[in-house]
Amino acid sequence: MKKNRFALILTLLLLLVAVFLVVNNRKSTLDRSESVFAVQDTASITKIFIANMDSSEVLLERANGGWVVNKRYEAQVRKVDVLLNTIMKLRVRAPVSAAGHNNVIKRMAGTAVKVEIYQVVPRINLFGKIKLFPHEVKSKVYYVGDATKDNLGTFMLMEGAEDAFIVFLPEFKGFVSTRYSAIEDDWRDHKVFRSTLGDIKSIRMEFGREPENSFLIEATDRNNYQVTRLIDNQLLARYDTLRLLNYLTSFSDVRFEALLNQDIPAGRRDSIIASPFLHRITLTSIQGMQDMVTTFEKRQYHDHLDVDYKFVPVDLDRLYGLVNNNKDFVLLQYYSFDKVLRPISFLEGN
Predict the structure, then answer these.
(1) Residue 34: what pLDDT?
(2) 281 in helix, strand or coil?
(3) End-to-end CA, the chain
């Protein structure tokens, strides 16, 4: 009798546990793998592949302590950091409602961006303490859709899943779809010059319209330099050492504002490049590597008046430039570029 009573109680307990698990599983839809988009250990991420429906693709890979775009260009560190932070903090707000689910899926079929995340993980992981045999795996594949009506969430769908979810970032009011760009230019580093004082072997500064201002700075040894006036190839007998060092250190971080390769018609771009240049700076490193930028006037094509209401035909804030061995046509700001556009009189202390 006691055995039967014990068996009955045990059966009831097991039944209650089973019912609890079933109900809890239904209520915890958000805890299923198809709703978990975040990757907590972003330090283990080795690659991020992003592709849109227009056949544009971006592959971000860790390399030499930084990130590389499509195996060709340095990536913007700040932008990659924003993406990694997004990947780490993604949270699910709710599943897409049954009433709107089909419409969301249809929109995503035409506009969503595919995201693949690769990580290095151990084959053996004992309680997070002992990790053995690391290898690279494709850990997440999901699709990023458009924003919700309130612009506070983003529709996402895990590959192979049936249910889409509304995803958000805690403490961020907005949507995250724009952070998953499949456009290569959006990820490229905007570096023009990034050289420390000890890296610089020489700097050749040429003024196209004012050749008398052109000069060449050369390091003769670790702590000494010579300055040559290019118009007559004469060495300066004296120069302001502090100003020269200030000028050289200005090349530690010089960037362009925007890539214009796809934004300006080829005919207009060719016409600008064929026009007389304003400045040409060639920096040669002690390793013999060269970085060069050539600048051009940016004409105003719309009415632009100065403070005296006079028409200004030339943009006084920006100019065009050719960088990366003349492969990239870019927009430059005088605000950030003026520091390296010094005439020889600056070095003479005049």
Answers:
(1) 57
(2) strand
(3) 110
DSSP secondary structure code for residue 311 in this structure = B
In the chain, what are the helix, strand and coil shares in percent, each to the nearest 5? 30, 35, 35
How far apart CA 48 and CA 32 sit, in angstroms, is 23
Instruction: Quote the tokens at residue 308.
Output: 């005296």
Kindly tell me if the per-residue pLDDT of 55 is higher than 60: yes
- The residues, ordered by sequence, that sit 6+ positions from 103 with a Cβ below 8 Å of its Cβ are none
In degrees and rounded to multiples of 5, residue 201 shows phi and psi of -90, -45
Q: And the tokens for 337?
A: 């570029």
How do the domains of the chain map onto residue ranges?
Answer: 32-187, 191-348
64: left (phi over 0), alpha (psi -120 to 50) or beta: left
In degrees and rounded to multiples of 5, residue 192 shows phi and psi of -105, -55
Exposed/middle/buried for residue 121 (C-beta within 10 Å: 0-12, 13-18, 19+): middle
Alpha-carbon span 218 to 285, nearest angstrom = 11
For position 246, what pLDDT does the model report? Answer: 96
Q: For residue range 165-209, what is the model confidence (pLDDT) as tens digits?
A: 999 999 899 999 999 999 999 999 999 999 999 999 999 999 999
- CA angle 149/154/156 to nearest 5° reads 130
The HSE-up count of residue 59 (CA atoms within 13 Å, CB side) is 7
Distance CA 131, CA 124 (A): 6
The set of residues, in sequence order, having a beta carbon less than 8 Å from that of 233 and lying 6+ positions away, is none
Q: Indicate whether 21 pLDDT > 60.
A: no
Sequence-distant (≥ 6) Cβ neighbours of residue 58 within 8 angstroms: 49, 50, 51, 69, 70, 181, 182, 183, 184, 186, 187
The rounded distance, in Å, linking the Cα atoms of 98 and 7 is: 43
